[in-house]
Amino acid sequence: MGTIRNVTVVQDYIDAWEAHDADAIVDTFAPGGTYRDPTTSGELSGEAIGDYAAGVWEAVPDLSFDVERLRSTVDDEVLFQWTMRGTQEGPLEELPPTGERFELPGADVIEVREDGIMSIRGYFDPGSMLEQLGHRVDVQPEEFGPVSFGVSARLDLGKKTEPGAFSITNLYFRDAEDEEAVSDRVREVVTEMIEMDGVISAVVCRDGERGQTITAWDDPDDARQLMRGGGHREAVEEMFETDGLGEAGMTSIWTLERMNGRMVRCEECREMTYEVEADTCPECDAPLPEAPAYW
Fold this sequence. Notes:
Distance between the termini: 65 Å
Structural class: alpha+beta
Oligomer: single chain
Number of domains: 3
Shape: elongated
CATH topology of the largest domain: Nuclear Transport Factor 2, Chain: A
Low-confidence stretches: none
Helix content: 25-40%
Number of strands: 15
Largest sheet: 6 strands, mixed
């Protein structure tokens, strides 16, 4: 196949991305043609390629590419080097929009056949993109001996009330699809909790194959709101369906045995001390900094 023809096919593909035309992108591929990059978790083909592009545009409506280099190589391959730019205005996977911009170099190695693109292998640094968008990027093992690692998020309502009870829920995933379904439920439940009486704060975490939510409440009766309706009750009901949500799990309410109070470090003498009603350091009488929330 001629090198000019190869480049023309790839240019049609680039133009379709610039036009935000998912159908036109799919039409540039040969039957059985595939696409993959560091964010796709494998190869995409057919309509899945268009769906992927549409999801990117939903998150980054102003996405654009500057062509740095476009040339045909041996064996019907085209090298497309580019700079990608855009602003995150919508959710990116499970990451909320930040309104921040990014600029990222990358390259696609594209195999072209007589009837269209046979494969695209995209290369770029997703960690750099996420950091530019204001998302935290941590590199850690999934597990190390008896310790498993994961991610967490905190719901902070600005309350400094001493908790009277905690509700703890955990659910074990069976696969990535199940994990996504559980994550959707967790987001729904946390959003509902914002409006519930007695909610102080919550921590949502995932490690390995387990998701867990720990919520601080004014008292145990407030925590029981979770089972009176809404997303949490529906999630529990889904757990008991045949082949339903999760592989194992637990819900519970815990009451407080002892609270030792909040500690702060004096900014003058650097002594750690328990917060006192006078809000002054017992060692040097300097004003103490504001104490953090209990939870």
